[in-house]
Amino acid sequence: MLRKVLGYVHKFLSALLMWLVRPILNAGAPPVVRLEPDIRYGFDSDKQRLDVVVPTGGGPFPVLVYVHGGSFTAMDKKEYTRIAKVFANAGFLVLNCNYRLAPGWKYPAQLEDVARAVGWALANVQDFGGDPERIFMAGDSAGAYLVSTYATVLCEKALARAFDMEHVQRPKSLSGLVLIYGAYDCETVLATGFPLISMSMKNFLGCETAEYRERAKAASPIRHIKEGYPPCFLTAGEKDHLCGQSLDFERELERVGIPHRSMYFPASECRVIVHGFFSTWWRGCAKKASDAAIAFLKEYA
What we know:
301 residues, alpha/beta, globular
């Protein structure tokens, strides 16, 4: 009960902070043709909405589904409008997605919402000039976890039942993933020392030890990388407590033979706001990571 209460407190404080800094995070966004906000992709919660950001030029555009971070309990797509516009300005039709948050909604609701958003993309992106045959996914922190885990279903079909995705249309494959300082092993992440990581993960997967361990087997994407997993770009700051998760994930990609690129920033380039630097667009590390991510996406588009 205490963990759940602390989860709601964390959600409230995070929402207040993001409301205050949202104008800074979204300042100076590049131009796009239009932004279609708050389109429903589900009807179980008001959170099941996405924004479509349409780039300039003629389609069909490759599609990027972006899933925000926030420890599964906080944040909103509204803090990511600038990031969505940056990717759209590079020529991608961007779907900037919300999803149901813990602790009110637990596993696998968040994964199911990611699947629903992709299902919506398959059915609707052509109306905005998008190409449903070229779908990429990206996310930061919890968002990186969600998209990397969603991708495991496409090469290990049995996971669809665990994630309640059997009823949702899925693509045969994804063109690539952009994974920004994510967590990829639900058990080892508890020992990383990342702030509030135990509370965040248990609000998501469940508080009971046996339940958590059982769910972690299916819900740790690093354990399900197989042939056919999409190419990946990973980035993190070396001082980030979660950086080891990206390094371990990259080693597993290498072992299986999945194409990948990575960019890690030493403390000399990324010391303050290490986890979350991608949103601090005025810093050199954010600009370098953004440029590298776009180069990766264009390579596989």
